[in-house]
Structure formats: C-alpha cells, structure tokens
Amino acid sequence: MKSGKQITRRQMLRGLGVAVAAPxxxxxxxxxxxxxxxxINLGMxxxxxxxxxxxxxxxxxxxxxxxxxxxxxxxxxVDNWRMKNAKDAVDKVYQNKDCRxxxxxxxxxxxxxxxxxxxxxxxxxxxxxxxxxxxxxKHVSCEKPLTxxxxxxxxxxDAAKKHGVVFRTDSECRSH
Length: 176
Hints:
The protein is an alpha/beta fold. It has a six-stranded parallel sheet with strand order 3-2-1-4-5-6, sandwiched between helices. Helix 7 links the parallel strand 5 and strand 6. The longest helix has 17 residues. It is globular, with a radius of gyration of 21 Å.
C-alpha cells in the first residue's frame, strides 16, 4: 500500500466477518426487491366506485411487479364508509393494518411518506387535487377527464414539468 500501512490478516478477517454478518442483522427487505427504495408509496384520493372497484383493485396487487412495487399507504374519501371499505381491502391484501384513513386530501398530499397519488375523485376535483400534489412534488395518476378546459390542462402540464414529476392520465389502469 502507498500509505505505508499494512492490514493484518486478522484485521481483514474481522472486516470480512462484519460484511458477512451484515445481512443477518439488516433485514432482507432493506436490501432486496422489497427494499423501500424500490417501491412507490401511494395515497388513494377518492375511493368511490371507480377508485375502489377498478383503481385500488389493480394498484393493490402491483406490489409484486418486477420493477418495484406500489404500496397503498393511505386512503381518503369524503364518505367514511367508502374510506373504511378501501382501508379494509388494502389491509386484507397486505395482511396488516398499516393503511391509514385520512379524512382531508390535503393531509395525504402533505405526508412525507407518500410518493404518488391516485386521484379518483369527481371530475371537478381533478385539477385542484392534482395540481396541489404536483406542487408538493408528488407523482400523479388522475382519472379522466383530466381537466374541464384546455387552459387547466396547460397549467397541470407546466406544473408537472416545473416540479419534475410524472403526471399520467388513468384509463382504468390500462397503463403502468
């Protein structure tokens, strides 16, 4: 070595022992395909018929995709009964009780652990909710129609570009 320091065989074996033991200490979920860096934490905003029966059913099973999973971590709806049904559906698939019911959509967007939202609300809410999410740096999948006017569409497209997020039109989860 150029520094003049020699590593003894004992030091090398000790270092190797730590490297070998690390996977036994660090859960495989941190290092493997289930690693947090390989998944998208998703908040569902609007879990009525379209949100629950089509979008949630598709998205809740995307955790097994080879390109990293989607995990629904929060659900929101103005109807508590629908929100509870959505939470129960997510928890049943994931076999835990981690999904959170959030009564205000703004709180879903404000959460640091949410990477993206699925906006399945009524048409007149698509732009206000999607725009707030984009401005918060969240990726957005939004039901059609995206907007009520061309001008609203331009505002959304410009905001997504400015904030460097993906914004996609959802058509019954036909694209991934």
